[in-house]
Amino acid sequence: MGYVIIGNSAAAIGCVEGIRRVDKEGEITLIASEKHHTYSRPLISYLLEGKTDLERMKYRPDSFYRDMGVDARLGVTVTALCPRERKVVCENGEEIPYDKLLVATGSAPFVPEIPGLERVEGKFTFLSLADAQALEAALTPESRVFILGAGLIGLKCAEGIAGRVKSVEIADLAPQILPSILDERAARRVQNHLERQGLRFHLGDTAARFEKGRAFLKSGGTVDFDILVVAVGVRPNVSLVKDAGGQAARGIVTDDTGLTTLPDVYAAGDCCESVDLTTGERRVLALLPNAYLQGECAGKNMAGLPARFDQAVAMNAMGLFGLHLITAGSCRGEALVQEDGGAYKAFFVEDGLLKGYILVGDCLENAGVYTALIRERTPLSTVDFGLLRERPQFLAFSREKRREMFA
């Protein structure tokens, strides 16, 4: 069996390991545009901050490709997928045949069309290691940095560079920071913390046009800057599958085995859609744990072992200037909120099930218990949820459930 994997991040690595759990001998060819050894993208802000280095960013050891029997062709871009001929075409003209193919092409930064943006010289995105290295080379202690986007990418970029520049200002059209994962009260708490670190926000606002070194905001204000970081979002890389005739909406459409609408072509990771367990909706969940599990599932199926990935849940765990937070699921149903000086907890309950939660501050211990309640769709009537909300612990479960969990 000849396997080809396009990509080299979490989904691709999950696929390699999924295949090798079933097929120890098949040929695996991995092709990736980035020249780097597989690395953990969430760590690029820590690289800028000096809290990690290139060696510790590696997602797998140096020997990974050799140990797994992978022919890794890094720095090579696939330009076309030919499902009838069962081959992929690379930019250098090489054609590589496959029996089973995984597309794990991830996503690319979305750069909006704003008048004058094309003339901004010190302009960067913040999604890849190359992006971080290019930004780092431009930073000076006198740099004034303006970040478009107060989501996960924009705020992690701000954390990574704040101690190395003169100022950081951030704008976002949303009325709050981290609008995709936090409710209003949690966002306010986190924003207050970030403002104490020197960050300045322009929320419900964004750049209407640019001139050299100056952004003119829709509100009428201006921001002067030396460096601009565009972090307003990403777009899944779907063109290979879509151009080959495969179905793609926001992301590549797959079934719960990872199979696309093209024969023997699978997809996993940030380029494809998942069914959100908490909402039943099909959407892109651009998260490393989901990407790995999708890739692993696809790899097993490619190697002939039936597997399903049907527990996709939006989940984020992050720290910002020493303040830590975890979110999972969706903000659906009744909100049960507990708040004190050191912690914020919000639980979202619908139809007797936990649909999501937000934890900020000194209350993150054993949060995996809440995630398990979501993934397993555990009826809250079968647990002491009041006790769990105070502190996740095994005593909140029935004796039978505790026996099952420990087993």
UniProtKB/TrEMBL annotation:
Its cofactor is FAD. InterPro entries: FAD-bd_OxRdtase, FAD/NAD-bd_sf, FAD/NAD-binding_dom, FAD/NAD-linked_Rdtase_dimer_sf. Keywords: FAD, Flavoprotein. The keyword Manganese does not apply. It holds the Pfam family Pyr_redox_2. Residues 3-295 form the FAD/NAD(P)-binding domain. The keyword Flavoprotein applies. GO terms for molecular function: oxidoreductase activity. Signal peptide: none annotated. This is FAD-dependent oxidoreductase.
